[in-house]
Design a protein that fits this description.
Radius of gyration: 34 Å
Shape: globular
Helix content: 40-55%
Number of strands: 25
Length: 1239
């Protein structure tokens, strides 16, 4: 990220003496972090009637968190209703352990059983049910309880401890679907069957009894509820849950007798009771617990946000009475265990934001509270949005049409992404209303990042479900009690007809104007009186009944993008920059909310700041032909004039310093400016045009770094991320595609075009899900997918209603059918040609790009697309879950109703993190750039501690720290496996098992495993990574070239030469295509093939490939480069071996006595390991494993310098690692082997 210009940051200590103690604050913060890391200690836990055990805890852990840890611990997992005591004093759940008086290393904490309430009993029953199903992945498949999938241990468990030194001990043969050239894309291997997920049934039935609720006289005895249990021995048990615990009663199915039954056993835990009365339960539960605790904690911990999988195996619906009871008693998920109660989400969120933040500990507590509350809010908002679309929530305005209805549920306000009361009509109607939800969410994210004390935003989440967008927000206190318009004290909610301002909001928003680059300005209100605003006019301010200042409707938080305009403007050609005109802009857009991304704004400001500095330095450095006296007198005036001129040239708001800000109301409909402001409006409009031109002239051409594979997008999500990192909106896809078509190297960018087309296609998927009756949803989705992925006009009768029999009775025919045939629906008449026509029209109207293919089959063949990749993208972006299947025929539909398993909500929400940890990561980046790798490692470790404290271990930032620690550990020669294993599991859990980031993490882990001697594990990880890559992007992708090179090297080290050749030859083809036949990577591929052919004794082929490598090295880096010299020496060695071999063959044919063929020089696994420890080389006379195998892993390609400034920054941009091939051409003197030795 570019550095922020000095004028946009706080004043330096030299300018402001009050800032000089800042170094002391940083030192104190560092001491706090070190103390935070060192506050771990051991306590003894004493459960009732059980031996005590030791537990490692941290000082910042809350007592409530310790309570949750004990509920997961093997010894105490069956307990839920207990309190913790230290020295006879009960511990408060919201207290940090280190603040408890008397706690120290070895302190004894007692687990004390508490009395049950109905809520506690329900929680206990649910917890027991979760324990019994802890190995069942059904919750992960169904997207429940923040459970998600992870398969790393399937490939590493019981394999990592074996150091394979014998070829026979390694199974190297891959499945056929992984081999190069195979076109089968099976879905079954995506979710392999794990042995530790085999069900262990402990009970046949556990359900609520029909005798519930207890009568009044039994409540007087402490009865809370009654349970029915059928054990594995087929014994029926009736159990009473009382305030003291659980015991057997004498009731039967038809006779109520709540008195205790023999044996009269009272247990505080249901598990304890069942263990005593059922030997089978005790045996199976013990085995289940043993398997559960063997799982890695990263596999068991619930994620902060739910991750949904787009494909799931077909499984039978299990019998689960507890689940059914929860569903019916949860008030549709409002709060599972506090029926009749609901959380005040707004008060919780705003209360967390008002917590003190003066020191590190207070900031951590505040950020942890905000993060936890926001994650709970997102979960509740998701459940509420699903309930709204399913029709389970009564609208506030039931008389309105369904698209106009609003809802309140669980203290949350829900509205639909449609234009209500034509509020968005001037902005684009329903299209603008749909886009406004994301604009508002981005605005809330921006203001949350600035985090100004006293300025409040609403909790916001946007949920797309079944083709309908639902906006969930917390409720401003008092906003529903009176007319909404009367609450507005700032801004305008009627498109400028009335405009208000308020000094409190102006003061608060003015604090955000500098970081958000908002210009404070005046507009005319409804009385033609100038009023001052410091935001977009649509942003309204409301004073809630709680006295807090809330801002809503943050649609124009970022500057307007003038390249896309909703209506024809009277733009003269002089107003539009030539850069925009050359690209065909401005263009009509579907709405007027198109805005520039914050990354583009920062890049543009940084670009202008560089121009500003250059202009000032050039003007001040010009020699002046004046006498010294005149020069001394006019020097301050001259400097002011130079700065004034530079400020005017770059569009600075100030005349005395660099300060670029944007007026958010320049393009707002209905806004009126004062006559004195006309010139400033024109200047601001020119500034917006300059920013739009900068996007086209600088940022889009910057995407050509895909040519050197600095960015390697594999799917639509990663392509979108690449665009956003450069500040380019997705609506510029058409422009990007046209620019790619103009390049001579467009074949090298084919992997960019594929996600582009996928992004275009998915637009119609969401709209096609609307207006579908619930009973026909699976039929409609399957029909749509058949139309999308096939040009066939013959579809199966998947649109028939299962309630309508083929032979209708005479009575039914006479009275007419009460159920309309599903084939009469609009969606059922959709054809493949019609859908493809709509997609082409969408591409033309929205992206301004012409798709020249006449059918989907033609597009797939022309662009070398995979149907499975298109299907994956469509399913992920629209929330479709499919059953495992295989594509059968090109012209035959493959989807039926039963193939569509479920529909999941696609949720967008605020991304919150730790600000202190983010600063530590930035400091670590600077340290590594200066060559201080150890210091960088320590800073990342500290950041990991803070991120984990705030966000939990399953979070993107924690995962980022883990993979950075792994890479630094590898460079420093330390063990990187533990860090990278956690990073892989975290990526699987929070990103998805087939996410491109997960694939890359698998690749890194394979490298570290091979470096550690775990060759079999490394091979299996690479096979997994290649399978996922084939599934996501197909076999025609640069990532596959890397994986094939790695696989070839590993298989060569394991002496599997035929397999090695298959992968290396495919890598050679892909490298030639994506890196050109004269690149160093292509030379490396030739060299690797030469080494394998040498090992096979085929010296002619080895010489041929090494000659190609030598030719490339010589032409690219010169004869004096180490690579060229090594290649030359290797050619001599191959020639000598070939001559010796030929002489031996000649002797044999001449019947010379004692003639024999000399064995080829091969590198065994054992010798490879010895060389690796000695010089980090894997192949004799060849490049190092890291250098040859990881072509685009920048950390291993860089020339080691003292400061590492030219090389190490790339390791932080993990999504785009390769960036060093061109830098390598400039480096003279050290090979990667030297690189590894120095580290």
């Amino acid at each position: 990220m570019s550095a922020v210009p000095p004028s946009q940051t706080e004043e330096s200590p030299e300018d402001d003496p009050s800032q000089r103690p800042d170094d002391d604050n940083k030192s104190q913060q560092l001491r706090d972090i070190v103390e935070l890391q060192e506050t771990g200690f051991t306590v003894r836990i004493q459960p009732p009637a059980t031996e005590s055990f030791e537990l490692q805890v941290s000082g910042q852990m809350l007592v409530a968190e310790l309570h949750q840890v004990l509920m997961d611990h093997e010894v105490t997992c069956h307990r839920t209703c207990f309190s913790l005591q230290l020295g006879g004093m009960a511990l408060d759940g919201l207290t940090e352990l280190r603040s408890i008086q008397g706690i120290q290393d070895g302190a004894l904490i007692k687990v004390v059983e508490d009395s049950y309430t109905v809520r506690d009993a329900r929680l206990h029953l649910t917890h027991v049910r979760d324990l019994l199903r802890s190995l069942d992945p059904a919750d992960a498949y169904n997207g429940l309880n923040c459970s998600s999938l992870s398969y790393l241990t399937f490939y590493t468990r019981d394999k990592g401890n074996r150091r394979t030194s014998e070829k026979e001990s390694v199974d190297c043969s891959p499945p056929d679907y992984i081999l190069p050239g195979c076109k089968d894309r099976l879905l079954t291997p995506l979710q392999p069957v794990r042995d530790d997920w085999k069900p262990l049934q402990c009970l046949r039935v556990l359900t609520m009894s029909s005798w519930n609720p207890p009568p009044g006289n039994r409540k007087m005895h402490g009865d809370l509820m009654y349970l029915n249990v059928l054990t594995m021995e087929d014994r029926e048990l009736n159990i009473t849950s009382s305030t003291r615990g659980f015991y057997l009663n004498q009731s039967t199915a038809f006779n109520f007798n709540p008195k205790p039954a023999a044996p009269k056993i009272l247990c505080h835990s249901l598990v304890e009771l069942l263990s005593q009365v059922s030997p089978a339960f005790r045996k199976n539960f013990t085995a289940l617990q043993k398997k559960r605790v063997q799982q890695h904690p990263y596999e068991r911990i619930a994620a902060a946000f739910q991750v949904f999988t787009w494909v799931a195996p077909h499984g039978d619906h299990s019998f689960d009475c507890v689940r059914a009871e929860e569903t019916h008693t949860s008030r549709m998920g409002q709060d599972e265990h506090t029926a009749g109660q609901s959380r005040d989400w707004n008060e919780e969120l705003q209360g967390c934001r008002e917590l003190p933040r003066s020191c590190l500990q207070e900031r951590l507590h505040r950020e942890r509270s905000i993060f936890k509350t926001n994650s709970d809010f997102v979960a509740a908002a998701t459940r509420g949005a699903v309930a709204v679309i399913d029709g389970n929530v009564m609208p506030l305005n039931p008389g309105e049409s369904p698209h106009m209805q609003m809802f309140v549920w669980n203290n949350l306000f829900f509205s639909l992404g449609f234009d209500i009361s034509e509020h968005y009509r001037p902005l684009g109607g329903n299209t603008a209303a749909h886009a406004a939800a994301i604009c508002d969410l981005r605005g809330a994210q921006a203001y949350a990042s600035v985090d100004v004390e006293g300025l409040h935003t609403l909790g916001t989440a946007v949920v797309d479900y079944r083709g309908i967008r639902v906006i969930a927000q917390t409720i401003v206190p008092g906003i529903l009690e009176k007319n909404h318009e009367q609450n507005v004290v700032y801004g305008s909610n009627d498109n400028g007809k009335t405009v208000f301002s308020h000094p409190r909001f102006l003061e608060l928003l003015d604090k955000t104007s500098k970081p958000l680059r908002v210009q404070r300005h005046q507009v005319l209100d409804h009385n033609n009186t100038p009023v001052e605003l410091c935001s977009g006019m649509e942003t309204i301010g409301i004073l809630g009944n709680d006295g807090r200042a809330y801002i809503l409707d943050l649609l124009r938080t970022f500057p307007t993008d003038l390249n896309f305009q909703f209506s024809e403007k009277e733009e003269t050609r002089e107003d539009v920059p030539m850069e925009c005109q050359s690209f065909g802009f401005p263009r009509l857009h579907h709405h007027s909310l198109a805005s520039l991304r914050p990354e583009l704004v920062e890049a543009f400001v940084q670009h202008r700041y560089e121009i500003f500095v250059k202009m000032v330095s050039q003007e001040l450095s010009q020699p002046e032909e004046q006498d010294k006296t005149t020069e001394q007198i006019e020097e301050p005036v001259c400097e002011r004039n130079v700065i004034l001129k530079a400020c005017k040239a770059v569009g600075s708001m100030s005349d005395s310093c660099f300060d670029i800000r944007f007026n958010r109301n320049i393009c707002s409909p209905g806004v009126r400016f004062t006559s004195e402001y006309v010139e400033e409006v024109q200047r601001q409009r020119r500034l917006l045009w300059d920013a739009a031109a900068f996007l086209l002239s600088d940022q889009i051409p910057a995407l050509r770094d895909c040519l050197d594979h600095t960015a390697v997008p594999m799917d639509g999500a990663t392509l979108t991320s690449v665009l956003h990192q450069r500040g380019v909106n997705v609506r510029y896809l058409g422009t990007l595609l046209r620019e790619l078509d103009k390049l001579e190297e467009r074949e090298r960018l084919r992997h960019i075009q594929v996600p582009n087309i996928v992004n275009i296609n998915h637009m119609k998927g969401k709209s096609s899900e609307q207006n579908v009756e619930p009973a026909a949803f699976s039929a409609a989705v399957s029909h749509f997918l058949n139309c999308l992925l096939s040009s066939s006009s013959s579809f199966p009768d998947s649109c028939s209603d299962e309630l309508l029999s083929r032979r209708r009775s005479r009575r039914r025919r006479s009275h007419g059918s009460r159920v309309t045939s599903l084939t009469d629906s609009v969606w059922a008449r959709l054809t493949s040609a019609e859908l493809w026509g709509k997609i082409r029209a969408e591409a033309r109207d929205y992206y301004h790009y012409t798709v020249d293919s006449e059918s989907i089959d033609e597009a797939i063949e022309k662009h070398n697309l995979q149907r499975i990749s298109l299907l994956r993208e469509m399913a992920i972006k629209t929330g479709i879950q499919l059953r495992e299947f295989a594509f059968e025929s090109r012209h035959r539909p493959v989807f039926g109703e039963e193939d569509v398993i479920n529909m999941f909500p696609v949720v967008k929400h605020l991304k919150l993190t730790s600000t202190d940890a983010t600063r530590l990561v930035q400091q670590a980046q600077l340290a590594v750039q200066q060559g201080l790798l150890k210091d960088g490692y320590e800073l990342i470790s500290q950041a990991l501690t803070l991120f984990s404290s705030v966000c939990g271990v399953l979070h993107e930032d924690v995962c980022m720290c883990l993979r950075l620690l792994g890479r630094l550990s590898y460079i420093l020669g330390e063990n990187a496996l533990s860090h990278q294993e956690k990073a892989v599991m975290s990526s699987e859990r929070i990103q998805g098992v087939d996410h491109p980031q997960t694939i890359q993490d698998y690749t890194y882990l394979a490298l570290y495993c091979f470096a550690g001697g775990q060759h079999s594990t490394s091979l299996q990880l690479l096979y997994r990574a290649r399978y996922l890559s084939l599934l996501v992007s197909g076999d025609d992708h640069p990532q596959v070239a890397l994986l094939d090179s790695m696989l070839g090297l590993v298989l060569h080290g394991l002496m599997e030469y035929e397999l090695s050749l298959k992968f290396l030859q495919n890598a050679l083809i892909l490298t030639s295509k994506y890196h050109s036949a004269t690149s160093l990577k292509h030379a490396h591929s030739h060299h690797l093939l030469a080494t394998v052919y040498e090992s096979k004794g085929e010296f002619r082929s080895a010489l041929q490939h090494e000659k190609e490598a030598y030719s490339i090295y010589k032409s690219q880096v010169g004869e004096n480069h180490d690579n060229t010299k090594e290649s030359s020496e290797y050619l001599k060695s191959l020639t000598q071996q070939a001559v010796i071999l030929q002489k031996a063959i000649n002797h044999i044919y001449s019947n010379t006595p004692s003639a024999c063929i000399p064995p080829p020089k091969v590198c065994t696994v054992l010798s490879a390991c010895e060389q690796q420890h000695a010089s980090k080389n894997i192949i004799t006379c060849g490049p190092t494993f890291a250098y040859a195998c990881l072509f685009f892993f920048s950390v291993f390609h860089a020339k080691p310098s003292r400061n590492l400034t030219a090389t190490q920054p790339d390791m932080w941009n993990y999504s785009h690692p390769p960036q060093l091939e061109n830098q390598l051409l400039k480096q003279k003197g050290l090979t990667a082997a030297h690189n590894r030795q120095q580290y």
